[in-house]
Amino acid sequence: MVAGKLSLQIRELDIPGQFKTSDNTFVTMILRVQYSVIPERASDAFYKLQSPEQQISAFVLNVVRGEVAKMQLRDVFEHQDTIGTAVNEQLSLSMAEFGFLIRNALVNEVRPAEEVVTAMNRVVASENEKTAAKNQGEAQKLRTVLHAEAEAEAKRLQGEGIAAQREAIVKGLSMSVDSLRSAMPTADPQTLMNLVLINQYFDAMRDISQGD
């Protein structure tokens, strides 16, 4: 007489649960467990447990609750493999007694509570605003510095131009005075300078009239 049938195929079970971290944050997690019946212990698997899924779920939730309670929220995300390994090791020992082999246990999903996500988004948005403001300030500072440097360079070049112009004027005046001194050896220096200035005046007036 056949009491019942028992599949030896690998089964997969998703186990959701909500857990509290050491920094008092609630997080929802989904654990995925793959298990199968140990062929030589099929009778134990059939008779000892009425509902292996419930037994596995209860044990997994208990293990994860203990592991997450020792971690902060950030650690839960960073050490999902550690949680999965702890579940795998402890669940394997427990379920072997009932004729089941735990092939794999892993954290399939981690999701913080909605209010935590909202708070995190606010923090990220605030940091982004600060970064944008800082970048804008740096850009304005750079524009100001570049403008000041350009202005200083323009003034330097303008000063060099004026200096060169004055040097040319002085040189021209000196040459004019020397020419007049050769032509008028008896004239005093002031007279020669006055003649040079008069000549420059008439040259300037001629340029103005030609420009009109």
Task: Describe the structure concisely for a colleague.
With 212 residues, the protein is α+β, with helices and mostly antiparallel strands. It is built from 6 helices and 3 strands, in the order ββααααβαα. It has a 3-stranded antiparallel sheet.
What does this entry look like structurally?
The structure is a single chain. The chain has a 3-stranded antiparallel β-sheet. With 212 residues, it is of the alpha+beta class. It has helices at residues 42-47, 52-68, 73-78, 80-96, 114-183, 189-211; strands spanning 11-20, 26-37, 100-112. The model has no long low-confidence stretch (mean pLDDT 78). It folds into 2 domains: 11-112, 2-Layer Sandwich (Tetrahydropterin Synthase, Chain A); 120-211. 66% of the residues lie in helices and 17% in strands. The longest helix has 70 residues, at 114-183. The chain starts with 10 loop residues before the first strand and ends with a helix. The protein is built from 6 helices and 3 strands; from the N terminus they run ββααααβαα.
